[in-house]
Amino acid sequence: MRLVLASASPARLATLRRAGIEPEVIVSGVDETGIDAPTVPGLVGALARLKADAVHERLAAQRGPGDDEPLLIIGCDSLLEFDGESHGKPGDPAAVIERWRRLRGNSGTLHTGHALTLDDPSGRFGPPGVRRRDAVASTIVHFADADDAEIAAYAATGEPEAVAGAFTLDGLGGPLISGIEGDPHAVVGIGLPLLRTELAALGVAWPAFS
Predict the structure, then answer these.
(1) Active site residue 77
(2) Which of 31, 36, 77, 170 is labelled catalytic?
(3) Active site annotated at which positions (predicted)?
(4) Which end of the chain is more exposed for a tag (fewer CB within 10 A), N or C?
């Protein structure tokens, strides 16, 4: 099976590798601006699906005659929901500091959308053709009551500028997270238990990748 991760996230790739999965990475390049949904889980789900569909369309067009190798594409997207708002990547240190002054001592929910597309022309994993699964993993994140100096020092590292919610669980932001309720992998960017369940629904057993 050809396995493709439709994401540029190093954290998602590292999480899969630590779990024994070595995917091919193809960045979707989709324009995420202007995409809307009534809820934050709905939005991350829509964005994940856009990424998976864009990569599938590209690869499907490259199939030659007799090419019936199963193709599995995984698209993901993450956003933090806090005070009824969605928060993606802050982009600069000033935005990181402003956001962390709101987050400290409080809790938010990190939503990660997962979109799976299985293109299986020969039906090795079930009915032949293209099948899709979509799911969202939501994890409550409790933020430490960090002081201004700690926030400024974290912002100065540059790490939180490029991650959803302006924090990491598995990096320099780890000491500033006082606890979580849910799947830690989903906070990093891809929920492994959820992925296993969705793969099973497509007829693909997790050991097929290890």
Answers:
(1) yes
(2) 77
(3) 77
(4) C
Q: Is there a contact between 8 and 27 (Cβ–Cβ < 8 Å)?
A: yes
Residues 127, 38: contact at Cβ < 8 Å?
no
pLDDT band at residue 66 under the 50/70/90 scheme: confident
Amino acid at the residue 125: F
Tokens of 27: 């960045």
What pLDDT does residue 210 have? 54
CATH level 2 (architecture), domain 2-209 = Alpha-Beta Complex (3.90)
Residue type for 43, please?
L
Cβ atoms of 161 and 91 within 8 Å: the answer is yes
Q: Is the dihedral of CA 170, 171, 174, 177 positive or negative?
A: negative
Q: Is the pTM of this model over 0.85?
A: yes
Give which of 75, 74, 128, 83 is closest to 107, Cα–Cα.
83
Tell me what the mean pLDDT of segment 190-203 comes to. 96
